[in-house]
Amino acid sequence: MNAQANETQQVPEGFRIDAKSRLVPEEQIKEIDKLRDELVLSIIDRACELRDQLRDFKSDVFSEIEAFVQTSAQEYDVQIGGKKGNIQLVSFCGKYKVLRAISENITFDERLQAAKGLIEECLRDWTTDARPEVATIVQDAFRVDQAGNIRTGQVLGLRRLNIQDKRWLRAMDAISDAIQVTGSKSYIRIYERVGSTDQYKPISLDIAGV
What we know:
Pfam families: DUF3164. The chain is an alpha+beta fold. It is built from five helices and six strands. It folds into two domains: about 10-85; about 85-210, no CATH class. Strand 1 (about 15) and strand 2 (about 25) form a beta hairpin.
């Protein structure tokens, strides 16, 4: 019997453990149930093996890209600090490219509430008829998502509005000061060019996309 069936309980020879953690003699189990069990465990074994291979692949790729970046920097006598930032590498033939993407997790501290107060002052003074689109954008930016979290992208997007009101500019400064980077996630994305076009399609490493 496959060892993954139960990792903590010793299973005597001739028995299997059912879904309620009971020992069941082999002779009392229907053949179709045995076949189903063996199929599922076989698939799980192969899936775990692939998962481990993907984990190793990701680790190796990150290390190899970082080593290449350092080699490239040394070629031009440039010192590159840290591992932050996206790197895009394209094959000589132009058919393939590899992207190392690092996405930061951003939250806001209490200064976001100060920014919101300043923005609300602006909205109260501006007539609705003069700037209805701005009011809509601001109200949408400060709505929370289904999990109750501030939607970071929408709040940061307010800084792109060309508004010169001093209170607005102070609010934008408060938003910038309120930004807290709480961590980051790293990704590897691999692409293949579509025919002779300039478009690239991802080479999927997701089981649902292959």
